[in-house]
Design goal:
about 400 residues, Elongation Factor Tu (Ef-tu), domain 3, six-stranded mixed beta sheet, globular, transit peptide, transferase, transaminase activity, aminotransferase, aminomethyltransferase activity
Length: about 400
């Protein structure tokens, strides 16, 4: 059946985001408070006008897909491009001469070692080394840090940062913050992202590499531009004043001559899964460390030597001795694996659990990621995944499943 696997995935995700009481998640989060009025981004009516199917997501009304299928949207992003409204995510700035040492108490990244105008993925840790949230942070200048946190984690993240900031300032630390609720966030992804966006700005985008940040004028609006994304493709996240967001979205679609399409949360989930990227609430939780999640590379060399962040003793011990469990990828037979599917050995011994899974539109096969006991994490290891009481063959494989195409210096 054409697109059948993705249709089922879309239906599953639609049910998941509408289920009351589930944990909010980044790509396709369940609605934590189904009874609460949903917030709307400034592009909400624009989504509806363009056929967006709106669903509850982390307290917001967001498009899960448009008129095309999730399968077609995923493939179009890889071949041409996608425009996502991610304005539900929370952008904020930390300012002050002590912004860097303050933030380094909360995250594993070597923020001090970043060049001005560059950024990195990091995680906020708790006292046990678990992950409060993942975030892309950018050192704009030595006394200005810009970061974006997940929509479903906004309240707990701001409470966490705010409490530590209050204590830090009480000891004389110079740091303050601004939450960018006056701005909207668009994610432009795919091979046409750069050439199309170049038509709307005088800044030379060829000089901006993956992870770098600039403040160009785009389509007449002063924007924050980060060359990053959540699909594995080259692309940008564009923070734009909300009063300019709809016009910018229209301009991008028009300049692409229909090749870049509005794309919803359904394809965003399949794209990030193909790229082997974690989804907070699925693949990372408060009890999961960065080491277990396969994000050891995000822990700066200096931070490994010095520690100084919450839960550092736990994380540094795991770096030295190895974690008890590890996040890995899988190819599998049978129905597409889903979150919480059990992973067992050939003899039925439980060794882990799937955290994300589905049918890959690009590879035309089942892919999944999950956690297994150390020793079963090596590529090629044969396992079984249990779906609705029946075991299906699977094998551990390297990630990403689809090669990434980040724009980096040659």
């Amino acid at each position: 059946m054409r697109g059948g696997g993705l249709w089922q995935l879309g239906q599953s995700l639609t049910r998941r985001v509408a289920r009351p009481g589930a944990v909010p998640r980044r790509g396709l989060a369940a609605e934590a408070e189904a009874a609460a009025p949903l917030k709307k981004t400034v592009l909400h009516d624009f989504h509806v006008e363009n056929g967006g199917k709106m669903v509850p997501f982390a307290g917001w009304s967001m498009p899960i897909q448009y008129k095309d299928s999730i399968m077609d949207s995923t493939l179009n992003c890889r071949s041409h491009g996608s425009l996502f409204d991610v304005s539900h995510m929370c952008g904020l700035s930390l300012k002050g001469k002590n912004s860097v040492p303050f933030l380094e108490k909360l995250v594993v990244a070597d923020v001090a070692g970043l060049r001005p105008g560059s950024g990195t993925l990091t995680v906020f840790t708790n006292e046990k080394g678990g992950t409060i949230d993942d975030s892309v942070i950018t050192k704009v200048t030595d006394d200005h840090i810009y970061l974006v946190v997940n929509a479903g984690c906004r309240d707990k993240d701001l409470a966490h940062i705010g409490a530590h900031m209050e204590a830090f300032r009480a000891k004389g630390g110079d740091v303050s913050w601004h939450i960018h609720d006056e701005r909207s966030l668009l994610a432009l992804q795919g091979p046409l992202a750069a050439p199309v966006l170049q038509l709307l700005t005088k800044d030379d985008l060829s000089k901006i590499y993956f992870g770098e940040f600039r403040t160009p004028v785009i389509n007449g609006a002063h924007c924050f531009l980060t060359r990053t994304g959540y699909t594995g493709e080259d692309g940008f996240e564009i923070s734009v004043p909300s009063e300019n967001a709809v016009e910018l979205a229209k301009a991008i679609l028009e300049k692409s001559q229909g090749k870049i399409r509005l794309t919803g949360l359904g394809a965003r989930d399949s794209l990030r899964l193909e790229a082997g990227l974690c989804l907070y609430g699925n693949d990372m939780e408060q009890h999961v460390t960065a080491v277990e999640a396969g994000l050891s590379w995000a822990i700066g060399k200096r931070r490994r030597a010095e520690g100084g962040f919450l839960g550092a003793d736990v994380i540094l011990k795991q770096l030295a001795e190895g974690p008890a469990v590890r996040r890995v990828g899988f190819f599998s037979a049978g129905p597409p694996p889903r979150s919480h599917s059990e992973i067992v050995t050939g003899t039925g011994e439980n060794i882990g659990e799937v955290t994300s899974g589905g049918f890959s539109p690009c590879l035309k096969k089942n892919i999944a990621m999950g956690y297994v006991k150390s020793g079963f994490h090596k590529p090629g290891t044969e396992v079984k995944i249990v779906i609705r009481g029946k075991s299906y063959d699977a094998a551990v494989t390297k990630m990403p499943f689809v090669p990434t195409k980040y724009y980096k210096p040659t």
